[in-house]
Amino acid sequence: MTAPAPYPHATVKRYDLGGGPRSYWIFEAAEPKPERAPVVVFLHGWFAVNPAFYGAWIDHLVRSGRTVVFPRYQNDVGTLPRDFLPNTVAAIRDAFDVLETGTGHVRPDARKVALIGHSAGGNLAAQVAAVAADPQSGLPRPRLVLALMPGEVFPTREPRLDQIPASTLLVVCVGEDDLLVGDIRGRQIFTEARAVPRSRKRFLLFRSDRHGYPPLLAEHTAPTCSNDRLDTGEGFFRSFQMSIGEINAMDTAGFWRIADGALEVAFAGRTFDEAIRDKDQFTHLGFWSDGRKVTPPLITDDLAAVPRVSLPNGIRLIPWGASARLDEPARETRLR
Questions:
Q1: What angle do CA 254, 193, 132 make, to 5 degrees?
Q2: What span, in angstroms and rounded, lies between the C-alpha atoms of 150 and 45?
Q3: Domains, the chain, with CATH or none
Q4: Mutual angle of helices 184-192 and 120-132, in 10-degree steps
Q5: What is the pTM of this model?
Q6: Which one of 44, 204, 246, 259 has the fewest beta carbons within 10 angstroms of its own beta carbon?
Q7: Strand ranges inside the chain, DSSP E
Q8: What is the pLDDT of residue 299?
Q9: pLDDT score, position 232
């Protein structure tokens, strides 16, 4: 087996800026320090304010040559869900101002900006992209939105996701064993981003594989990947969240590799139809030690081709109104 190529940057430099629920972290590549770099805004899940919960992925992104901005849009239980979006927007604006004008920072490449979000952060990624479409927003327009297991803590009518520009690449990922948010918000985001043509968006259903040990489970926390080096000591459920953030093939060969591929496609100004000639290769997660292929995610631009997530479609902490529900019936996603 060929050893993975070394990262082009040896270390990660970090900055803790701002205050309260509008504070944020900036992570920059170092050794060597680039003059300019693409920027990934990484949006955490509900109460996952400690960047260490996603630290291994952040380390991968930064040492690969990208700057990561990590907004803390939630201070504690007192931060209302309706404030998540304005807090996030304020933090992103401030972070880009610091990157563009602050002494000693890696300058941002405004032509290469992406949003990656998990859970409530996945929902926020789509909303931020809609807000950024307004030239008066003060936000850079993202080339890529990657929403992982997106969930909406509280339903809002604004911003409308049909405002996401047609030039955006959109990837929505759900997990077949996600019993927290299911697939309903992911399907809504994919459907409501009507301006984005099918050639520029993909929907992925990650599937569990229990063939080997430890099993690969496509559940809600699958994208977390702990890294003690980025631990800030924050987080209401810090110890528990750090303990479940294992790193496995679903991370390295799944979320990380697919995100890397999507970033490359987006920043090159290409469509998925142009770039993904071999869907099996794009979603390949590797093999178990006995040679059996790991069950890959399903990928499509047609929601009708993807089985529904069960239970049914996720537990909702706050119910959606009837107008927000999808009419199609729930179906069991497990392979027969």
A1: 90
A2: 9
A3: 11-324 (3.40.50.1820)
A4: 10
A5: 0.90
A6: 246
A7: 11-17, 23-30, 36-43, 67-72, 107-118, 144-148, 169-175, 201-206, 298-300
A8: 96
A9: 85
Q: Give the residue among 148, 143, 251, 229 at the shortest CA–CA distance from 190.
A: 148
Question: Helix or strand or coil: residue 313?
Answer: helix
State both tokens at 55. 């630290």
For the residues of 115-181, what is the DSSP string, one character each? EEEETHHHHHHHHHHHHHTSGGG--PPPSEEEEES---SS----S-GGGS-TT-EEEEEEETT-TTT
Interatomic CA distance for residues 206 and 152, integer angstroms? 20
Predicted confidence at residue 5, as pLDDT, reads 64
Q: Encoding tokens for residue 122? A: 């996945």
Residues of the chain with pLDDT under 70: 1-5, 310-336
Give the three-state DSSP class for 259.
Answer: helix
Residue 106's nearest CA partner among 19, 7, 31 is 31
Q: What gap in Å lies between CA 148 and CA 116, rounded to an integer?
A: 8
The pairing of beta strand 36-43 with beta strand 23-30: unpaired
pLDDT score, position 228: 87
